[in-house]
């Protein structure tokens, strides 16, 4: 009688594939965000360079941050979640997306409380309302879509709260699923 040995999957991390999957998942997430009328790149850029900077600089800085985070999360996925053999890709993507959504939701109040104008788009006490890209008045808010709803404001106020939290969860699950399917299974 011959003993059969079940091969152990190769747990080697595919770094190039992880980076590429992070980029592709970030692009897909960004498209979904745009369809939801969210402008994360401008919001991130405004937090870093301020609202007085040119829109081109705001988008460039915000886009660089957004893609850098997407690539880092792609690599973390490859190291932590990719090697899990007992899960299919959909489960890996959903669990990972929910985990990074929780991180994002926890980070927003910290960012809102720590930054000072003009870096903080969610600060309630500031020297100038013009420095706030999440201000409810259209003239002072580059993200404004309607007086009653501002989908770019993750900090509460108009368009914030449960709705923006749900949008964040949806976007991060889309990112996680895309990442899981692009990265693929361990071979």
Regions with little confidence, pLDDT below 50 for 5+ residues:
114-121, 123-131, 138-142, 144-159
End-to-end Cα distance: 29 Å
Radius of gyration: 19 Å
Alpha-beta content class: mainly alpha
Describe the structure.
The chain is mainly α and 187 residues long. It has one domain (15-183). The chain has 5 helices and no strands. Helix 4 (89-114) crosses helix 5 (162-183).
Q: Could you list some keywords that capture this structure?
A:
187 residues, mainly alpha, 57% helix
List the helices and strands and how they pair.
Blueprint: H1 15-35, H2 40-49, H3 55-81, H4 89-114, H5 162-183
Helix pairs in contact: 1-3, 1-5, 2-3, 4-5
Short description:
The chain contains five helices and no strands. With 187 residues, it is mainly α.
